[in-house]
């Protein structure tokens, strides 16, 4: 899937990935796709919760070699 921006959250946990997601998403236009790689189990859930809370949509998820990749479509505001 094509992504307009990429955020690498591998090795990050607690609050850091949420700040990284916000920084990655903010400059995108409505409908753009943010690709996010995570490897921490807790962060995987946090990404889904964050996207839903912000009104964004997780449109695809891929898993390979311990890394989960999320493709998140930015919601309109």
UniProtKB/TrEMBL annotation:
Domain UPF0033 per the UniProt entry, residue ranges: 6-74
A Pfam family matched in the record: TusA
Signal peptide annotation: none
CDD domains xrefs: SirA_YedF_YeeD
Top-level taxon: Archaea
Family annotation (InterPro entries): TusA-like, TusA-like_sf
Residue stretches in coiled coil: none
SUPFAM superfamilies per UniProt: SirA-like
Family note: Belongs to the sulfur carrier protein TusA family.
Record-given protein name: UPF0033 domain-containing protein
């Amino acid at each position: 899937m094509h992504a307009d921006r990429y955020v690498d959250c591998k090795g990050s946990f607690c609050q850091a990935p949420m700040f990284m997601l916000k920084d990655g998403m903010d400059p995108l236009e409505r409908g753009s796709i943010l690709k996010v790689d995570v490897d921490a189990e807790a962060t995987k859930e946090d990404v889904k919760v964050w996207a839903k809370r912000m009104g964004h949509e997780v449109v695809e998820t891929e898993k390979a070699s311990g890394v989960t990749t999320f493709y998140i479509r930015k919601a309109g505001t």
